[in-house]
Amino acid sequence: MKKRTIAIVAGGDSSEIVVSLRSAQGIYSFIDKERYNLYIVEMEGKRWEVILPNGEKTPIDRNDFSFMENGEKKNFDFAYITIHGTPGENGLLQGYFDLIGIPYSSCNVLVSAITFNKFTCNQYLKGFGIRVSESMILRKGFEILDEEVINKVGLPCFIKPNAGGSSFGVTKVKTKEDIQPAIEKAFGESDEVMIEAFMQGTEITCGCYKTKDKEVVFPITEVVTSNEFFDYDAKYNGQVDEITPARIPEETAERVRLLTSAIYDILGCDGIIRIDYIITEGEKVNLLEINTTPGMTATSFIPQQVRAAGLDIKDVMTDIIENKFN
Questions:
Q1: Torsions phi, psi of 234, nearest 5?
Q2: Nearest to 163 by CA among 180, 188, 200
Q3: In angstroms, rounded to a whole number, what is the distance separating the alpha carbons of residues 136 and 175?
Q4: Quick one: three-class SS letters along 275-300?
């Protein structure tokens, strides 16, 4: 059987490019190389390049996402998108692949756009009875008074980029004086800023994927950090304890798993997603955000959860790819 040629698409145009490139290395190590021909594609602005086996880089033809190797034109059969941020997490790249007819690993244009916009996603899911924190949105060019923030969401609160991840530009605000500097910092990462009420509780995260013939909800991970919140250093520099399975009552864990599966279906997700929650007093499960291109480094949550489930991540990767061809 002819091997399918897979592009692991990484990079992007946000502060998360470094994380994305690390995820690409993880995915490269996870996918079955006896079954697939693998190439990492780096995208940054108008620089789209394939890394060849000899380490050299060659440009991608954006007309059809092809490239040249040893004088021969090569085409990709599938794109595994692992860009965290624009254009791979917000629907732009998905639209491009739809136009040229290349199947890809993640959610479609609409779902990617909705989930990337944290405020829109949370307000949409709130309509389905899913608990979310009180929040407000601020767009570039508009101002908000400190008193408005305090009256609406209270202190402490989180001020974060509305479109972004990896905790870049996020501030936990405790005092009135810190509100405006935090807004300015968040605007450095996004044209929209989300101001969100603080919730005290246990932070957890749960991964999930579905194919035409199976549903897999991974074991839940509990996130414990001594930092003010689960910031970049906690995520990527080891300042965190990640406990899988989470130390929560089984009844609560089952509700989280069912909720994760339900959100996947409500939105019409595709590929692997990861949903972050916080459990507040009374075992109330509150949605934080949805990641449709979750981190895939060797130490990221999804690989941890795959191991905890007793699954082989190589098989999971094969499921994601082959689901688009079955």
A1: -65, -40
A2: 188
A3: 18
A4: EEEEEECCCEEEEEEEECCCCCCCCC
Q: At CA 138, angle to CA 132 and CA 142, rounded to 5?
A: 165
Cα(178)–Cα(38) distance, rounded to whole angstroms?
47
Q: Which helix (H) or strand (E) element contains residue 9?
A: strand 4-11
User: Closest Cα partner for 9 from 110, 112, 92, 78?
Assistant: 78
CA distance 20 to 1: 31
User: Using an 8 Å Cβ cutoff, are 249 and 283 in contact?
Assistant: yes
> Domains in the chain, start-ordered, CATH in brackets?
4-105 (3.40.50.20), 113-131+200-322 (3.30.470.20), 135-197 (3.30.1490.20)
Give residue 234's pLDDT band: very low, low, confident or very high (50, 70, 90).
very low
DSSP letter for 218, please.
P
Alpha carbons 241 and 218: distance in angstroms, whole number: 18
Region 11-15 average pLDDT: 91
- Gap between the Cα atoms of 266 and 125, Å rounded: 8
Helices marked H in 49-117: 92-100, 109-116
Q: How many CB atoms lie within 10 A of CB 279?
A: 22
Round to whole Å and give the CA distance between 176 and 320: 47
H or E element, residue 195: strand 192-197
Within 10 A of 94 (CB to CB), how many other CB atoms are there? 26
Rounded (to 5) percent helix, strand, coil in the chain: 30, 30, 40
User: What was the pLDDT predicted at 165?
Assistant: 55
pLDDT > 70: what percent of the chain? 94
